[in-house]
Amino acid sequence: MICNHSILNQQSAIPILNAPSSILNCIKGQTMPTPSLSPALVAAVDDLEVVARLIVEGMRSGQHRSPFHGFSTEFSQYRAYRPGDDLKYLDWKVLARTDRLYTRQFRETTNMSAVLCLDSSASMAYPETGLSKFRYAQMMAAALAHLIVTQGDAVGLMTMQSGRLVYVPARGGRGHLRTVLAQIDRLEPAGEWEPTTAITRAADLLRRRGLVCVISDFYDAPEATQVELRRVNRRGHDVALLQVVSKQEVDLPFVGDLEFEDLETGARALLDPRATRGAYRDRIAAFLEGWRSNAKRDGFDYALMTTDEPPSEALRGYLLRRGATP
After folding, report:
1. Sorting pLDDT into bands at 50, 70 and 90, what band is 2?
2. Are residues 163 and 85 in the same domain?
3. Distance (Å, rounded) from C-alpha 132 to C-alpha 115?
4. Distances (CA, A) of 313 to 70, 76, 110, 173, 306
5. Which of 10, 59, 66, 199 could be a cystine partner for 316, CB 3.0 to 4.6 Å?
6. pTM of the model
7. What is the pLDDT of residues 180-208, one digit of tens each?
Protein backbone atom coordinates (compact mmCIF):
# COMPACT_ATOMS: atom_id res chain seq x y z
CA MET A 1 0.00 0.00 0.00
CA ILE A 2 1.50 3.31 -1.06
CA CYS A 3 0.60 5.76 1.61
CA ASN A 4 2.91 8.73 2.23
CA HIS A 5 0.48 11.60 2.63
CA SER A 6 3.09 14.35 2.21
CA ILE A 7 3.76 13.54 -1.42
CA LEU A 8 0.30 14.67 -2.59
CA ASN A 9 -0.71 18.23 -3.34
CA GLN A 10 -4.38 18.11 -4.22
CA GLN A 11 -6.89 20.92 -3.95
CA SER A 12 -9.19 20.77 -0.96
CA ALA A 13 -12.84 19.84 -1.43
CA ILE A 14 -15.15 22.59 -2.67
CA PRO A 15 -17.16 24.05 0.23
CA ILE A 16 -20.91 23.63 0.19
CA LEU A 17 -21.46 27.40 -0.07
CA ASN A 18 -19.99 27.25 -3.57
CA ALA A 19 -22.09 24.28 -4.63
CA PRO A 20 -24.19 24.64 -7.81
CA SER A 21 -27.96 24.98 -7.68
CA SER A 22 -28.39 21.25 -8.48
CA ILE A 23 -27.06 20.40 -5.02
CA LEU A 24 -29.01 23.13 -3.27
CA ASN A 25 -32.25 22.04 -4.97
CA CYS A 26 -31.75 18.48 -3.74
CA ILE A 27 -31.04 19.72 -0.23
CA LYS A 28 -34.29 21.69 -0.30
CA GLY A 29 -36.16 18.50 -1.18
CA GLN A 30 -36.92 19.24 -4.82
CA THR A 31 -37.17 16.27 -7.15
CA MET A 32 -35.66 17.73 -10.28
CA PRO A 33 -33.09 15.49 -12.05
CA THR A 34 -29.58 15.75 -10.59
CA PRO A 35 -26.61 15.49 -12.96
CA SER A 36 -23.53 13.42 -12.19
CA LEU A 37 -21.52 15.49 -9.74
CA SER A 38 -17.79 15.23 -9.14
CA PRO A 39 -16.71 13.12 -6.15
CA ALA A 40 -15.06 16.10 -4.43
CA LEU A 41 -18.20 18.20 -4.79
CA VAL A 42 -20.45 15.52 -3.33
CA ALA A 43 -17.96 14.82 -0.53
CA ALA A 44 -18.02 18.52 0.41
CA VAL A 45 -21.57 18.09 1.73
CA ASP A 46 -21.36 17.38 5.46
CA ASP A 47 -24.80 15.77 5.81
CA LEU A 48 -24.45 12.11 4.79
CA GLU A 49 -28.20 11.76 4.28
CA VAL A 50 -28.06 14.54 1.69
CA VAL A 51 -25.01 12.89 0.11
CA ALA A 52 -26.92 9.61 -0.20
CA ARG A 53 -29.89 11.36 -1.81
CA LEU A 54 -27.62 13.24 -4.22
CA ILE A 55 -25.96 10.05 -5.41
CA VAL A 56 -29.17 8.05 -5.75
CA GLU A 57 -31.04 10.84 -7.52
CA GLY A 58 -28.05 11.42 -9.78
CA MET A 59 -27.96 7.81 -10.95
CA ARG A 60 -31.68 7.47 -11.56
CA SER A 61 -33.10 7.97 -15.05
CA GLY A 62 -36.77 7.32 -14.59
CA GLN A 63 -38.24 4.45 -12.64
CA HIS A 64 -36.38 1.15 -12.74
CA ARG A 65 -36.95 -2.26 -11.26
CA SER A 66 -34.90 -3.25 -8.26
CA PRO A 67 -31.71 -5.21 -9.06
CA PHE A 68 -32.04 -6.99 -5.71
CA HIS A 69 -33.78 -10.34 -6.06
CA GLY A 70 -35.20 -12.92 -3.70
CA PHE A 71 -37.09 -16.16 -4.01
CA SER A 72 -40.82 -15.46 -4.15
CA THR A 73 -43.72 -15.72 -6.58
CA GLU A 74 -43.05 -13.40 -9.54
CA PHE A 75 -40.49 -14.81 -12.02
CA SER A 76 -37.69 -12.38 -12.82
CA GLN A 77 -34.73 -14.01 -14.57
CA TYR A 78 -32.30 -16.93 -14.68
CA ARG A 79 -28.85 -17.10 -13.19
CA ALA A 80 -26.19 -19.82 -13.08
CA TYR A 81 -26.70 -22.40 -10.32
CA ARG A 82 -24.52 -21.91 -7.24
CA PRO A 83 -23.78 -24.60 -4.65
CA GLY A 84 -26.29 -24.14 -1.84
CA ASP A 85 -29.17 -23.01 -4.06
CA ASP A 86 -32.47 -24.76 -3.41
CA LEU A 87 -32.81 -27.52 -6.03
CA LYS A 88 -36.54 -26.88 -6.40
CA TYR A 89 -35.70 -23.65 -8.25
CA LEU A 90 -33.59 -25.41 -10.89
CA ASP A 91 -35.08 -25.21 -14.37
CA TRP A 92 -34.94 -28.80 -15.58
CA LYS A 93 -36.18 -27.92 -19.07
CA VAL A 94 -33.25 -25.54 -19.57
CA LEU A 95 -30.92 -28.25 -18.27
CA ALA A 96 -32.29 -30.71 -20.82
CA ARG A 97 -31.84 -28.23 -23.69
CA THR A 98 -28.44 -26.78 -22.76
CA ASP A 99 -26.87 -29.29 -20.36
CA ARG A 100 -26.30 -26.36 -17.97
CA LEU A 101 -27.71 -25.69 -14.52
CA TYR A 102 -29.73 -22.49 -14.11
CA THR A 103 -31.75 -21.30 -11.12
CA ARG A 104 -35.00 -19.42 -11.59
CA GLN A 105 -34.98 -16.10 -9.73
CA PHE A 106 -38.15 -14.41 -8.60
CA ARG A 107 -38.91 -10.80 -7.88
CA GLU A 108 -38.59 -9.99 -4.18
CA THR A 109 -42.05 -9.52 -2.69
CA THR A 110 -41.03 -9.80 0.96
CA ASN A 111 -38.37 -7.62 2.56
CA MET A 112 -34.80 -8.32 1.60
CA SER A 113 -32.20 -7.93 4.35
CA ALA A 114 -28.75 -6.56 3.50
CA VAL A 115 -25.68 -5.91 5.63
CA LEU A 116 -23.02 -3.47 4.46
CA CYS A 117 -19.53 -4.49 5.62
CA LEU A 118 -17.43 -1.31 5.55
CA ASP A 119 -13.63 -1.43 5.72
CA SER A 120 -12.49 1.22 8.20
CA SER A 121 -8.80 0.30 8.30
CA ALA A 122 -6.03 2.89 8.03
CA SER A 123 -5.28 2.07 4.39
CA MET A 124 -8.69 3.46 3.49
CA ALA A 125 -7.57 6.91 4.72
CA TYR A 126 -5.40 7.34 1.61
CA PRO A 127 -4.89 9.98 0.33
CA GLU A 128 -4.84 12.37 3.27
CA THR A 129 -5.45 15.42 1.10
CA GLY A 130 -8.41 15.53 -1.25
CA LEU A 131 -10.99 12.73 -1.33
CA SER A 132 -9.91 9.62 0.57
CA LYS A 133 -10.97 6.09 -0.25
CA PHE A 134 -12.78 5.93 3.06
CA ARG A 135 -14.89 9.01 2.40
CA TYR A 136 -15.78 7.59 -1.02
CA ALA A 137 -16.68 4.25 0.60
CA GLN A 138 -18.82 6.08 3.17
CA MET A 139 -20.70 7.82 0.37
CA MET A 140 -21.33 4.56 -1.50
CA ALA A 141 -22.47 2.80 1.69
CA ALA A 142 -24.84 5.68 2.45
CA ALA A 143 -26.26 5.65 -1.07
CA LEU A 144 -26.83 1.90 -1.02
CA ALA A 145 -28.49 2.11 2.40
CA HIS A 146 -30.75 4.89 1.11
CA LEU A 147 -31.66 2.91 -2.00
CA ILE A 148 -32.37 -0.31 -0.10
CA VAL A 149 -34.56 1.34 2.53
CA THR A 150 -36.54 3.45 0.04
CA GLN A 151 -37.48 0.33 -1.91
CA GLY A 152 -38.95 -1.13 1.28
CA ASP A 153 -36.15 -3.46 2.34
CA ALA A 154 -33.92 -3.72 5.42
CA VAL A 155 -30.29 -2.62 5.74
CA GLY A 156 -27.67 -3.02 8.46
CA LEU A 157 -24.00 -2.21 8.99
CA MET A 158 -20.95 -4.18 10.12
CA THR A 159 -17.52 -2.64 10.58
CA MET A 160 -14.67 -2.38 13.10
CA GLN A 161 -13.30 0.41 15.28
CA SER A 162 -10.35 0.03 17.65
CA GLY A 163 -10.31 -3.71 17.05
CA ARG A 164 -13.97 -4.17 18.03
CA LEU A 165 -16.95 -4.99 15.86
CA VAL A 166 -19.52 -2.23 15.31
CA TYR A 167 -22.91 -3.55 14.28
CA VAL A 168 -26.27 -2.03 13.37
CA PRO A 169 -28.97 -4.69 12.79
CA ALA A 170 -30.74 -4.84 9.44
CA ARG A 171 -34.08 -3.05 9.66
CA GLY A 172 -36.24 -0.88 7.45
CA GLY A 173 -37.75 2.56 7.79
CA ARG A 174 -36.55 6.14 7.53
CA GLY A 175 -35.73 6.36 11.22
CA HIS A 176 -33.48 3.32 11.01
CA LEU A 177 -31.84 4.68 7.85
CA ARG A 178 -30.82 7.77 9.80
CA THR A 179 -29.35 5.51 12.50
CA VAL A 180 -27.26 3.63 9.91
CA LEU A 181 -26.08 6.85 8.27
CA ALA A 182 -25.17 8.40 11.62
CA GLN A 183 -23.03 5.36 12.49
CA ILE A 184 -21.31 5.45 9.09
CA ASP A 185 -20.60 9.15 9.56
CA ARG A 186 -19.02 8.58 13.00
CA LEU A 187 -16.46 6.10 11.70
CA GLU A 188 -12.79 7.02 11.34
CA PRO A 189 -10.30 4.93 9.35
CA ALA A 190 -7.60 3.66 11.70
CA GLY A 191 -5.53 0.55 12.39
CA GLU A 192 -6.27 -2.77 10.78
CA TRP A 193 -9.53 -4.57 10.33
CA GLU A 194 -10.25 -8.29 10.29
CA PRO A 195 -12.36 -8.87 7.18
CA THR A 196 -13.03 -12.54 7.88
CA THR A 197 -14.34 -11.73 11.37
CA ALA A 198 -16.57 -8.90 10.13
CA ILE A 199 -17.92 -10.85 7.15
CA THR A 200 -18.57 -14.01 9.19
CA ARG A 201 -20.43 -12.13 11.90
CA ALA A 202 -22.47 -10.15 9.37
CA ALA A 203 -23.65 -13.37 7.71
CA ASP A 204 -24.36 -15.02 11.07
CA LEU A 205 -26.60 -12.15 12.13
CA LEU A 206 -28.74 -12.25 8.98
CA ARG A 207 -31.75 -14.21 10.13
CA ARG A 208 -32.56 -15.45 6.63
CA ARG A 209 -31.03 -15.41 3.18
CA GLY A 210 -29.90 -11.91 2.31
CA LEU A 211 -27.16 -9.77 0.83
CA VAL A 212 -23.68 -9.27 2.28
CA CYS A 213 -22.04 -6.29 0.56
CA VAL A 214 -18.37 -5.64 1.35
CA ILE A 215 -16.90 -2.20 0.58
CA SER A 216 -13.11 -2.26 0.86
CA ASP A 217 -9.77 -1.93 -0.89
CA PHE A 218 -9.33 -5.66 -0.06
CA TYR A 219 -5.67 -5.32 0.92
CA ASP A 220 -6.08 -7.20 4.20
CA ALA A 221 -5.87 -11.03 4.18
CA PRO A 222 -7.13 -11.43 0.60
CA GLU A 223 -6.90 -15.24 0.45
CA ALA A 224 -8.65 -15.78 3.77
CA THR A 225 -11.28 -13.20 2.82
CA GLN A 226 -12.09 -15.02 -0.41
CA VAL A 227 -12.43 -18.32 1.44
CA GLU A 228 -14.87 -16.75 3.90
CA LEU A 229 -16.88 -15.08 1.13
CA ARG A 230 -17.33 -18.43 -0.57
CA ARG A 231 -18.51 -19.94 2.72
CA VAL A 232 -21.04 -17.14 3.17
CA ASN A 233 -22.31 -17.72 -0.37
CA ARG A 234 -22.66 -21.45 0.23
CA ARG A 235 -24.97 -20.60 3.12
CA GLY A 236 -27.31 -19.02 0.56
CA HIS A 237 -26.44 -15.33 0.89
CA ASP A 238 -25.78 -13.13 -2.11
CA VAL A 239 -22.31 -11.56 -2.01
CA ALA A 240 -21.38 -8.18 -3.51
CA LEU A 241 -17.86 -6.72 -3.55
CA LEU A 242 -17.21 -3.01 -4.11
CA GLN A 243 -13.45 -2.48 -4.39
CA VAL A 244 -12.46 1.15 -3.81
CA VAL A 245 -9.04 2.43 -4.88
CA SER A 246 -7.50 5.81 -5.63
CA LYS A 247 -6.13 6.80 -9.01
CA GLN A 248 -2.71 7.40 -7.46
CA GLU A 249 -2.59 3.80 -6.21
CA VAL A 250 -3.22 2.50 -9.69
CA ASP A 251 -0.95 4.83 -11.69
CA LEU A 252 1.89 5.72 -9.28
CA PRO A 253 2.26 9.16 -10.93
CA PHE A 254 4.92 10.54 -8.55
CA VAL A 255 8.42 11.69 -9.46
CA GLY A 256 11.66 11.98 -7.50
CA ASP A 257 12.95 9.91 -4.59
CA LEU A 258 10.10 9.58 -2.09
CA GLU A 259 9.46 7.79 1.16
CA PHE A 260 6.37 5.59 1.17
CA GLU A 261 4.65 4.46 4.36
CA ASP A 262 2.25 1.60 5.00
CA LEU A 263 -0.59 3.24 6.91
CA GLU A 264 -1.43 0.07 8.84
CA THR A 265 2.00 -1.30 9.79
CA GLY A 266 4.08 1.89 9.68
CA ALA A 267 6.69 0.22 7.47
CA ARG A 268 8.62 2.72 5.32
CA ALA A 269 10.58 2.43 2.08
CA LEU A 270 12.56 4.97 0.05
CA LEU A 271 11.82 4.51 -3.67
CA ASP A 272 12.27 6.17 -7.03
CA PRO A 273 8.78 5.83 -8.60
CA ARG A 274 10.17 6.13 -12.13
CA ALA A 275 12.36 3.07 -11.61
CA THR A 276 9.58 0.96 -10.05
CA ARG A 277 6.52 2.26 -11.88
CA GLY A 278 6.34 -0.47 -14.55
CA ALA A 279 6.67 -3.38 -12.13
CA TYR A 280 4.31 -1.70 -9.66
CA ARG A 281 1.59 -1.12 -12.24
CA ASP A 282 1.84 -4.75 -13.34
CA ARG A 283 1.43 -5.95 -9.76
CA ILE A 284 -1.50 -3.69 -8.90
CA ALA A 285 -3.22 -4.62 -12.17
CA ALA A 286 -2.75 -8.31 -11.36
CA PHE A 287 -4.10 -7.74 -7.84
CA LEU A 288 -7.25 -6.02 -9.08
CA GLU A 289 -7.78 -8.54 -11.88
CA GLY A 290 -7.43 -11.34 -9.35
CA TRP A 291 -10.33 -9.99 -7.33
CA ARG A 292 -12.44 -9.43 -10.44
CA SER A 293 -11.83 -12.88 -11.92
CA ASN A 294 -12.28 -14.69 -8.60
CA ALA A 295 -15.56 -12.87 -8.01
CA LYS A 296 -16.77 -13.88 -11.47
CA ARG A 297 -15.73 -17.49 -10.88
CA ASP A 298 -17.55 -17.62 -7.55
CA GLY A 299 -20.70 -15.91 -8.82
CA PHE A 300 -20.27 -12.72 -6.76
CA ASP A 301 -21.23 -9.24 -7.85
CA TYR A 302 -18.07 -7.14 -8.25
CA ALA A 303 -17.36 -3.51 -9.07
CA LEU A 304 -14.06 -1.63 -9.13
CA MET A 305 -14.55 1.99 -8.13
CA THR A 306 -11.88 4.68 -8.32
CA THR A 307 -12.24 7.83 -6.25
CA ASP A 308 -12.15 10.08 -9.33
CA GLU A 309 -15.35 8.49 -10.71
CA PRO A 310 -18.61 10.38 -10.01
CA PRO A 311 -20.38 8.37 -7.29
CA SER A 312 -23.72 8.36 -9.12
CA GLU A 313 -22.09 6.87 -12.21
CA ALA A 314 -20.26 4.25 -10.15
CA LEU A 315 -23.49 3.25 -8.42
CA ARG A 316 -25.43 3.16 -11.69
CA GLY A 317 -22.78 0.96 -13.29
CA TYR A 318 -22.83 -1.46 -10.36
CA LEU A 319 -26.62 -1.72 -10.28
CA LEU A 320 -26.85 -2.20 -14.05
CA ARG A 321 -24.29 -5.01 -13.90
CA ARG A 322 -26.09 -6.59 -10.96
CA GLY A 323 -29.43 -6.43 -12.75
CA ALA A 324 -27.91 -7.91 -15.93
CA THR A 325 -26.23 -10.85 -14.17
CA PRO A 326 -27.64 -14.03 -15.73
Report:
1. very low
2. no
3. 23
4. 25, 25, 28, 26, 11
5. 59
6. 0.76
7. 999 999 999 999 899 999 999 999 999 88
